[in-house]
Amino acid sequence: MYPEYMKPSLDKVAQTRAKRFELAKSGKPVFPPMTAEEREKVLQDFHPDYKPDARRQVRVGPNKGELLTAEVADLLESHSRIDPQKFDLSQPDFETDILIIGGGGGGCAAAIEAMRNGAKSIISTKLRIGDANSMMSQGGMQAADMPQDSPTRHYLDAIGGGHFDNKPELVRALTEDGPKIVKWLEDLGVVWDKLPDGTMQVLHGGGTSRKRMHSCRDYTGAIIMRTLMDEVRNHPEMVEILEFMPTVELIIDDQGRCAGGILYNMETEEYFSVKAKATIIATGGFGRLHIRGFDTTNHYGATGDGLVMAYRAGANLLYMDSVQYHPTGAVYPEQIAGFLITEKIRGAGGQPVNKDGELFVFPREPRDVEAAAIIRECNGRKNGITIQSGRVGIWLDSPLIEMLQGEGYINHQFPAMFRQFNRYGIDITKEPMLIFPTLHYQNGGIEINEKAETTIPGLYVAGEASGGVHGRNRLMGNSVLDYNVFGRRAGRNAAEYVKKVKLGKLTLEHVAKYEQELKEAGIKADRIAPVLLPLYTPEEVRKRQLTAHYEGTLR
Amino acid sequence: MKQELGPTGSSHQNKKKTKKKSEEATNNLVTVYIMGKAHKVPAGSTIMGAIEYAGYQIKRGAGCREGFCGACATVYRMPGDFKIYTGLACTTLVQEGMWLAQLPAIPARKAIYDLEKLQPTVETFQLLYPEIFRCVACATCTKACPQDLEVMDYIQAAKQGDIEKVMDLSFDCLCCGLCAIRCPAEIVQFNVGLLARRLYGRYLNKKSQHLEKRIKEIKEHKYDQEYEKLMKMNREELTKLYYERDME
Description:
The complex is a heterodimer of chains A (about 550) and B (about 250). Chain A has about 550 residues and is an alpha/beta fold. Chain A contains 17 helices and 20 strands. In chain A, strands 3, 4, 7, 8, 9, 10, 18 and 20 form an eight-stranded mixed sheet that branches. In chain A, helix 7 packs across helix 15. The longest helix of chain A has 21 residues, at about 170-190. In chain A, about 60% of the residues are buried. With about 250 residues, chain B is α+β, with helices and mostly antiparallel strands. Chain B is built from eleven helices and five strands. Chain B has a five-stranded mixed sheet with strand order 2-1-5-3-4, with helices on one face. In chain B, a hairpin with a 2-residue loop joins strand 1 (about 30-35) and strand 2 (about 35-40). The radius of gyration of chain B is 25 Å and the shape is flat. Chains A and B meet through helix 5, helix 6, helix 7, helix 8 and helix 14 of A and helix 2, helix 8, helix 9, helix 10 and helix 11 of B.
C-alpha cells in the first residue's frame, strides 16, 4: 500500500493515463527518441560513470595506467587470499579436462557443450549451482528469428547501443548464433512464449529496432537456468559439481598456459588444487561491490572474482570503466529497494512518468541513456517523488499495460513482478511502481575473441565476466544470449583444445609476481580479493568481533 | 532496512548514511528467535535482513535475494500457534515472537534421464518419479509453497499425464524444496515440475517455422556479405546507419 503522502502524485498519474494511452495506441513514439547529441549530453551530465571521482588509474597489471571504475581498481589492487609458496602442485587434489569457474548460465552451457564434444569438466561454484544472475533475468533474450528481422539488424542495434565500442567479431558471433541458441534451448526443454500457431511471442526492448525479445513469462532466466542445470546434473559421469567451493586463483604451467585453479572450501576453509588442461571463467559480474553505493539487482555472490584472478595471470581487461545501471530498480517499499523491475514492462507498453504524471523520455532508449534521463528528472529537474527515507524515484506506469494488452496480461506475463509488489499490498495492475536506476551489469570484462579465448592459452571466458561483446552499454536481452553463445563456444573450443595440449609444470608464480608488483607500486592496502561475499554485518556487531588471533575454523 | 543495501548502507542518492544499531533504538524493534537465540531486529525487515542485522554472515541460505533462486527456504513458528509456517527468507517479513530456522540444503532425489529418449506421456512419470502415485492429496505441499502455486494440483495432473497443466501450474516454481520437505508421501514435487516443463518445451510446444527458416538461411551464408560490410564500416558510417534505421 502506498502511503497517503504519495496520493496527490498517484492521482496525477491516473489523470494523465487516458491521454498517454491514446498516444501509445497511435503507434508513434510516445516521446521523441533522443538524437546522438542529446544522448551524449544526458550521459555526460547525469550518468554515474561520468562523475569526476567515478574512475581512477590502476597502478599495476596489464591495464596499468588506464582509468577504471574506482571500485574495480581497488579490487585489482588487492592481495591474494593465498600464499603461493604453501602450495605443492605436484600432487593435484583433482584432475580434469576443463575447470569451469562459475555455475551460472555460462558455466552450465559450457559444461554441456564440452561434454557433448567429449571433454570432462569440474564446475567450481561459490554458492550453489544456478545461484547466479542468469537465474534472475526476467524480461527475455534477444534473437533475430522473426521474418521482419535479420541478424545483421540485430548487429546494428547492439553496436549502436554499445556506442560503437563493441568488438565487431564478437557482435557478429552474438547475433549470428542467436536463432540457433533459441532452438538449442528449446531442444533442451525451454518453454518459450509463443502464439497458438507456433510463432514466437516477441517484444521490444530498449534500443531494439525490431521486436525480438523472446521470453518465458517473466521467469525467463529461471526457466533457462534450471533447464541448463538439470541437463548438467543428468551427466554426473562427465561433470563434477563442487558447490561452496569457489576458485580463488588460476594455475599457470611453465609454458604460460592456464592449467586449472586453486579452490577454497568456504565451509571447512581448506584449499584444493585442480589440474585442468583448460579453464573457463564464467564468474559473472560485480554488482555486490556496490559501485558508488548503489543498490543492486545482482545475486549474493556477484563480486567480480574472475576479473581479479585473470588479471593477476596477465589477461587484459576491456571497458572496465563502464557500469550498467538498470533504469528501473524498485524504490518503494524499501524492503525491495534496488530490485529489478524488468524492462519487459516498458516493452509491453509501461511508461516512465514524473511526479506530475508526465512523460519525459522515450521509454525504450538504450539502458544508459534511459537511466541518465531518469536521474536527470529526479536530481536535475526535481520532478521525482521523495519517500520518507530520502530516496527519490519516478513512476513506472504499469496499469497502462492492461489497457494496451488486455485484462489479465500482467498476471500471466508478469507473475514475478505482480507477486513482488502484491506482498506489500501494491497491485501493479491498478497502481504504478516507484523506480530509480539500480546497479545491474558489468559492461566490460576480460577481453576475449570470437572463440571465447583470452590472450592466455587455455583460458576462456564466457558471459558477464568477459568484455567486448557489449561495448560500453549492453542492451536488454543480450546478456542471456551472450552467456549461451559464448558459454557454448568456450565449452566447444576448450574441448577441442584439451585434445592436443600436454601441460608442463604447474605454478603459482604469477601470484607471487603480482604481489611484488603491488609492493613496488607502493600499494599498502589491506584488501583481499576475490572478495567472495559482501559484508552486510552492522557496524555495532563488527565492533564486538574482537578475536585477536584466528585459529582453526572458529573465528 | 539499511543492511539490505550493502556495506556502504548508502542510498542511491549517494548520501553516506550507514545506519547503526543505536539509531534503530528509536525505531520499532521486534524480537525474533533465530535458531533459538533471541535478537531484536527492525520491524519490517525481511527474515534475511534480520539474520544479517543480528550479525550472521550467511553462506548457505542466500542466493539471488529477490525471490527467484529458492536458496533461502525457511521454516518458522509463531507464539501460541501450533502451526508450522514456511517462507523464503528474502521475501518474508519478520513478526514479533517468530521462531525461525533456515534450511541450508534440501535432500531431494533427482531422476537422471536422457530427454531425447523420453516420451511426453504419463509413462515417463511412472518410470522416473513413481512415488507421485503415493500422493494422498493432503495439499500440504500447496500450503507450504511460498509462491502460492497449486502444487498438489500439478502432481495430480502429472499422475494423469497432463503435461501442459503441470508446466503451466509449476511455471513459477523456484525449486526451494519446501513442498518436498513437508510432503508426507515423500514426493519431490519441484523436480516433477521441472521434468514436465522440459518435456513440454521439447515435445509439446508448437514448433516455430520462422525459426527453422532463419537458421537455414544463416547456415547457407545468406548474411555473410552484409556482415562483412558492416564490420568494415568506420564509426561515422555506422553512426549514420544506426540513427537512420527504421523502427518496428
